[in-house]
Design a protein that fits this description.
This protein is an alpha+beta fold. It has a domain of 66 residues: 434 Repressor (Amino-terminal Domain), CATH 1.10.260. Helix content is 48%, strand content 12%. The chain contains five helices and two strands; from the N terminus they run ββααααα. Strands 1-2 form a two-stranded antiparallel sheet. A hairpin with a 2-residue loop joins strand 1 and strand 2. The longest helix is centred in the first third of the chain and has 15 residues. The radius of gyration is 15 Å and the shape is globular.
């Protein structure tokens, strides 16, 4: 299985094709920034309410975070933005703004 391509997975004897996003961290970063701005929040306000540092929030949005971030961090950010975690992972996020 190779991520970033359409991958064949067999589940319960049925073939399912999955399209993994090879740029998932970039997609999440972009969506966090778009939703944050739409909600009228600064990076500092989002960081404070999500209980993470401003510098970490800035790096998440600027896509300069090489090691990624935890599910807990993503969950906290989503809660503050009043959006689901799966919506932050959507490639074409538009219906929540």
């Amino acid at each position: 299985m190779i991520c970033g391509t359409i991958t064949l997975v067999v589940v319960n004897m049925k073939e399912i094709f999955i399209d993994f996003d090879p740029n998932i961290k970039s997609t999440i970063s972009k969506n966090i920034k778009r939703v944050r701005k739409a909600r009228g929040l600064t990076q500092e306000q989002l960081a404070l309410n999500a209980e993470i540092s401003y510098d970490f929030m800035r790096r998440i949005e600027s896509k300069k975070i090489h090691s990624g971030f935890s599910v807990v961090t993503l969950y906290k950010i989503a809660c503050v933005l009043d959006i689901s975690v799966d919506e932050l992972m959507e490639r074409n996020l538009s219906n929540v703004l």
